[in-house]
Design brief:
Helices cover 44% and strands 23% of the residues. The chain has 386 residues and is α+β, with helices and mostly antiparallel strands. It comes from Luteimonas colneyensis.
């Protein structure tokens, strides 16, 4: 068993014991039963298992429906009669008190230690509901455990059923900064055919944030339907498809005063159209991630305008994925009633921080009133070559 999993087991047990002490209450039962259960817990915490079990059994004799007493008995007699007998007591307890976090925690830990990851996934999912105070650390622990491919596959099988906490678990793995966890779980869901477009987009974006552009591109490209053997750069540069705002497709960000759509330009061809409503605009919201090798490249495109009123027109800007290193800007258009061809030669630098690049359409005018834009600009046949 890996060190990572042992650490997760220990943390899980500690968290759930703390949670159980806080949550194992019976406020809706009679006061005397409450007091007796409290006495049983106190005996258990003091290490007097026989007395705790005796009190809990007395409570059950008076109120058989009080399921939490079964959990106290199971904990008080933990280990007695061997592992099978102990497990049977906890399984009885969870049937009678399904919202007891300590019982769920014991069963989850036992299942993990036995390698029964399917059972563990069920119990961990239930714990996210019955132990709300521990939800955040539980999600972090699940992300740690997903570093194990076998656990990730069992968890994915559980998530195929789309339980309540599916999205929270997926978000936790992408936010965990544990690449293996996110890749194992999302990859397993994709293998099950249960990774939808939103899940995939979040997964790919997580890789981009972590600087894993090569892995992000490979995972994104492998999920494309009907893609050619050699993918154009950028993808969908002819705007033959509506931008998905995901992966290495065009991103259309919401910007006040800017409207985006696609238009037909004849013979089945398309172009991107941006309409400006007379407000100051710095970044138009149209951008696309690229994965270019170090060296010389040329951006080529066609553009035209309709009634565009701007101080300095619009231009394309390339930056490295580190968000700090500028590569180039240009291919500016200010007024072009007919289609014009534009080019921008640039060099991608070597070294860390430029494994990927962002291509964005921006307004180069100074901040303020000078950035006010009205009218339309159309772009078509955008591609990067040598």
């Amino acid at each position: 068993m890996s060190a990572v999993r042992w650490i997760a087991f220990a943390a899980l047990v500690a968290a759930l014991i703390a949670t159980g002490v806080a949550l194992v209450t019976t406020r809706h039962d009679q006061q005397r039963l409450q007091d007796d259960l409290a006495a049983a817990r106190a005996a258990l915490e003091a290490g007097d298992g026989p007395r705790a079990a005796a009190i809990a059994r007395d409570v059950l004799a008076r109120e058989p429906a009080l399921g939490r007493a079964f959990g106290l008995i199971a904990r008080a007699e933990d280990g007695q009669g061997g592992p099978d007998a102990t497990r049977a007591r906890y399984e009885t307890a969870v049937r009678r008190a399904p919202r007891d976090p300590q019982v769920r925690g014991w069963l989850a830990t036992d299942a993990l230690q036995r390698g029964d990851f399917a059972a563990a996934a069920d119990q961990l999912d239930a714990l996210l509901t019955v132990a709300p105070a521990q939800r955040k650390p539980l999600l972090e622990l699940i992300a740690q455990l997903a570093q194990d491919p076998a656990f990730a596959d069992a968890l994915a099988t559980h998530l195929v059923q789309r339980p309540q906490w599916r999205s929270a678990i997926l978000r936790a793995t992408t936010a965990s900064k544990l690449p293996d966890a996110a890749d194992n779980l999302h990859g397993a869901l994709r293998a099950h055919g249960a990774l939808d477009a939103q899940d995939t987009a979040r997964w790919i974006d997580g890789m981009l944030r972590d600087g894993r552009w090569g892995s992000a591109y490979a995972r994104w490209a492998s999920g494309l339907d009907g893609a050619p053997a050699r993918l154009p750069v950028p993808w969908n540069g002819d705007f033959g498809r509506a931008p998905s705002s995901a992966g290495f497709d065009w991103r259309v960000r919401r910007v006040p005063g800017v409207l985006f759509d696609r238009i037909e330009t004849g013979e089945g061809r398309h172009a991107a159209r941006l309409r400006f409503l007379g407000r100051p605009v710095a970044n138009t919201g149209l951008e696309v991630p690229l994965l270019l090798a170090p060296g010389e490249h040329v951006l080529r495109l066609r553009a035209r305008t309709e009634g565009l009123r701007s101080d300095q027109g619009l231009e394309w800007r390339l930056t490295c994925s580190d968000g700090r290193t500028a590569i180039a800007s240009g291919a500016r258009v200010r007024e072009a009633r007919d289609w014009v061809a534009l080019e921008l030669a640039f060099t991608v630098p070597e070294g860390e921080g430029c494994e990927g690049q962002w291509l964005r359409l921006v307004n180069p005018a100074p901040r303020g009133v000078a950035q006010t834009l009205r009218g339309e600009v159309h772009y078509a046949d955008i591609h990067v070559g040598t």
